[in-house]
Amino acid sequence: MSKTTGLGKGLSSLIPPKIDKKIISKDSEVLADDERVVQVSVAKIKANPHQPRSDFGYESMEELINSLKEYGILQPLILTASTDGYEVIAGERRLRAAQFLDFKTVPAVIRDIKEQQKLELALVENLQRKDLNPIEEAVAFQRLIDEFNLTQEEVAKRVGKNRSVVANTLRLLTLPSEIQKALINGKINYSTARIIAGLPPQERTKFFQKVLKQDLTVRAVEGQARKVVVKRHLRTTKDPNLAALEEKLQAALGTKVTIKKSGEAGQIVIDFYSGEELDNIITKIC
Hints:
Strand order of the largest sheet: 1-5-3-4-2
Radius of gyration: 20 Å
CATH superfamily of the domain at 35-111: Conserved hypothetical protein from pyrococcus furiosus pfu- 392566-001, ParB domain
Number of helices: 12
Strand content: 5-15%
CATH architecture of the domain at 35-111: Alpha-Beta Complex
Helix content: 40-55%
CATH class of the domain at 35-111: Alpha Beta
């Protein structure tokens, strides 16, 4: 796996998607209340004794450590008060990375554990309603992941949906605000937005504008999206032997793999789109 010190496509998944509160109605029940973020001494925070994750080795956290080193902690930890300090509700990987980097304090939100459980139930209940728009659903999914340390699989079980539905909905948060707003306002539908989210980031806005201008059907959108992918592939045609190796690695790891070669040296770039996918890849490799 390539070692990355900057924020590449893989590292971007370690930073929570930016939720534009201007897009969603102010009274939407899936939005987090404005809560006070405080700086808490790392020395006063204890790990969650019920944490199911056991692999916190440096290899499995290297990219998160690199991200924190360059950008700091962008998503506050969720803590609850204990007899001699605080205990982690969500954010243990961020805490361990901060400890590795000798951070003195970390940003955190302090919650009562009972109130935290009520919040989870409220979010799940909201997700089971039929009147949420896709962006509100994505925001609620993201909150369950960020604030309750849930995997996509666990979120799917709690709300009674397939994991693929949860994953596809979460990807909507990676779309530019303009496209998210168009989805909420009904200018495009969920299927079209999902197709756009599957395109390379630099192609999304241009493709979206084309969809609006030509008033394309979902089938036409799929066809046009395939053309975009094919054109990019033709521009980057590579040695068929390398392409075969990429396909072999992709089949083994269940994600996109790119091999970049220059002479006898090169890089293998493995894409992932969530912390859960990163853990699965590392498990397969190790």
